[in-house]
Amino acid sequence: MSNLSPVVQKETAELRRSRFWAAIRKDKLLYFMAIPGICYFILFHYVPMAGLYMAFIKYNIYKGFAASPWVGLANFEKLFSMYGFPEALRNTLIISAMKILIGFPLPIIFAIALNEINNKYFKKTVQTVVCLPHFISWIVVQGLLYTLLNTNSGVIVDICRLFGYDGKVINLLASKQHFQGLIVASDIWKTFGYGSILYIATITSIDQELYEAATIDGAGKLKQIWHVTLPGLRSTIVIMLIMRVGNILNAGFDQIYAISNDMVTEVAEILDTFVYKLGITRQDFSRATAAGMFKSVIGLVMVLITNWIVSKIDKDSALI
Amino acid sequence: MKKKPSEIVASVILHIIMVLLGLITLYPFWHVIMYSISDPVKAMGGGIFLWPKGFSTIGFDILFKTNQVYVAYGNSLFLLTVGTSFNVVFTALLAYPLSVHRFKGRSAITMMVFFTMLFSGGMIPSYLLVDALGLLDSLWALILPGAISAWNMLIMKNYFQSIPPSLEESASLDGATPLVTLIRIIVPVSMPVVATVALMYGVTHWNSYFNAVLYIYDQSKMTLPIYLRMLLSSTAMDQATQSGVSFDSAAITPETMKMATIVASVLPILVIYPFIQKYFVKGVMVGSIKG
């Protein structure tokens, strides 16, 4: 284009611009339709992101946001050395890591196992049943856990007696040693059924001919799973794994808030509950925002790193 | 193909495991239901419940005389109906334009939406925003901030994209505006995804409680999960007493009240669930196309 005269270049640029606006005018009704949604995202998602600047000021309730002094990273420094923060971070990582290590493979294994069942009705019934816990709230789960584990009338007492244990039954809900395990177990109970639907759906879309070819080649069930089913699931697994690892700092706020109690705070406090107590209960907005920002930034970095690693291994499977 | 003995054994074990999984999933619900209709005193003895110990509906009698339960139920129903309608309408209104190929700025806006799934301002800025908008202590604080879920929107957009363009073209040839096309043609054809997305939003509304903890203080705006939580942490009998219900306190225990309340909040889901479950499975299959 640069070999054209400046006049022509200017006219071409203007032409492109007017075509651009003409295109928008033509579709203006589509734009009107999209405006509410766009406004929603800007208002409720991007405006709070701008609010992150609060992490860099020393919020003075009398001066308000505009006039409060800028303190740079001081809030973060104070935050990391603050009582409770390192523990919260530690608990978050431990619980999240356990949930990923144990809870991520289980729906996959379940989906593969369920696929081996031939009876359609049995399959559908099992699937329907195990998905049920997804649809109840964590408060209800807490109620169920209380029902089963309380030392007065809980089921656990009977089960212990059944196995011949006559001593005092510990209250698992208030036990520091068991709490994190309880969180992971109840999370798995609640999520593995629904989480497996995606994998089950993906498995059914695998070409049957691949299985037939494998059988002809003499592959038994296990070999078929390894060579046909798993590769077929690969891109789904990878995407889900990227998102899960990116979310590593989300240890399950709703769950922890519902199930934890004062006895187990030491092992139950996660970043989110810490932010909640700091920001809403103690109204320390600046530092709580700093903690929240820490979490969001690390989360984003984790997703990008995980995605980059995956794209190095297999370009097609990456998320971004 | 004749099955080898080892295959038969493996298959049997697999079936048994599946049945066990099903029982583990269902037993807690069964236990709670059985307890709630048992005689309170006999039930205190505890243990495994295969059937009720004695029979008594006293827990439910008291529960249904407690006013607060109806308040909480009403608020949750409001969220479910009004909230979900908002959700579906706004989500579809955004998903459709983004699914049209010639829509300028399509990829930019889609990226903008997708980014919100990876990064957010966090709890405090959102809370302060809701406060600044004057939505604090209003049920709208439970509807508006979550009006569109990026995930659900992308699912809908993907589905719309898979609709043959000829449908849309014939509509515009007939002189239909995009909005009319959306309502009259796209949505009826997309019922699976609309149903799925509506159900996902609906379940979120029915079960969400942290938002209510964060934004609502007025007891008259309490939602069902909040009510349940209150009950589980304090004594249900205190609640009943406060509501002016009179009962023979020797005949009822806090445990039974808790069980009755849990059943009351879970029962709607348990009942509707078998019917809606197939939509979810279909919906996840629909949404599993990578964006």
Helix content of chain B: over 70%
Greatest chain-chain contact? A-B, 93 and 92 residues
Quaternary state of the chains = heterodimer
- Parts with pLDDT < 50 across at least 5 consecutive residues of chain B: none
What is the helix/strand order of chain B? HHHHHHHHHHHHHH
Distance between the termini of chain B: 41 Å
| End-to-end gap of chain A | 33 Å
| Element-by-element helix/strand order of chain A | HHHHHHHHHHHHHHHH
Given the helix and strand composition of chain A, which structural class is it? Answer: mainly alpha
Q: What composes the largest sheet of chain A?
A: none
Average pLDDT number of chain A: 85
Name the structural class of chain B: mainly alpha
The fraction of residues in strands of chain B falls at: under 5%
β content of chain A, as a range?
A: under 5%
Number of helices of chain B: 14
Q: Biggest β-sheet of chain B, characterized?
A: none
Cα-atom Rg of chain B, whole angstroms?
A: 24 Å
Topology:
The complex is a heterodimer of chains A (320) and B (291).
Chain A: H1 6-26, H2 28-50, H3 64-67, H4 74-80, H5 85-103, H6 105-115, H7 120-131, H8 138-149, H9 155-162, H10 176-204, H11 208-216, H12 221-246, H13 253-259, H14 265-268, H15 271-281, H16 285-313
Chain B: H1 5-36, H2 40-43, H3 58-65, H4 67-99, H5 106-115, H6 123-132, H7 150-161, H8 165-173, H9 178-189, H10 191-207, H11 210-215, H12 224-233, H13 236-242, H14 254-287
